[in-house]
Amino acid sequence: MKLHRDCGFGGVSIAQRQPQKAVKPLVSETGTALAINYLTSGVAALSAGGTGRGGARNRADRESHALTAAQIGNLKAAEHHADKIGLPFTRMISIHWQAAGVPLAGMAKATYRFTDLLKKALARHGSGTAWLWTHENAPGDGHDKGGHCHLLAHVPSDLVPVVTALQRGWLRRITGQPYRARVIHSKPIGGRLGLEAGNPDLYAVNLDAALAYVLKGASPEAASQFGLERLEAGGRVIGKRCGTSQNIGTKARNMHVELPHSSTRARRAGS
Q1: What's the pTM value of the predicted model, to 2 decimals?
Q2: In which domain of life is the source organism classified (predicted)?
């Protein structure tokens, strides 16, 4: 199997050689970069301003510098569960909170408010959602990006215009400041809407690459345990470093009874 850029969408595509024995798709570090290059366009940082409290759970003495093995295990299980319940991650959103004027101690509260607004907007249109996120605070692409969030979420294709039309307004509500250019970057997994239904195998390769990118702030020990090839310094984060929606959290996973063929993985296996 060969991985290459897919028609300008910036994702990973699959080209089969003939004849060839079927194999499980593998994503090299280069393949991962292709899958997420549309998310790393080099956002220039703005000076952090504004005010805001991080909340009781984001006190200054609750700091971390990398994702732990337990956190990575939970995020991977959450991604798998989102697929099981029919809410596979279809969109990756990066928010540069420092560039938006949010202080490091307020980043967790800001991310919570953003996901809450996303959930309520989709619910008004009759759709559920699921998400996971990680926080980082590190230089990148020659710019000190400061505190920022990477979010994987389920957004149905027909509701993408609704979300993209609202998200800048959400940022204004959260920060209390005018929207600053290039603070938010939002793209479908694999670069194409509906890829999870139209080409499940290609979607799976791109989702794996996007998840690897979100987890790149792992500790060396955690990266070794989970075989993560991409590893970058996650930086100092105050408060929660990662999180998931309740419907794919540990409690929800323990209570779930899987229905036959309810996930994209089950449909791929049965095809």
Answers
A1: 0.77
A2: Bacteria
pLDDT tens-digit profile of 200-234?
Answer: 999 999 999 999 999 999 999 999 999 999 999 99
Per-domain residue ranges of the chain: 58-270
pLDDT tens string 144-194: 579 999 999 999 999 999 999 999 999 999 999 999 999 999 999 999 999
Per-residue confidence (pLDDT) for residue 256, from 0 to 100 = 73
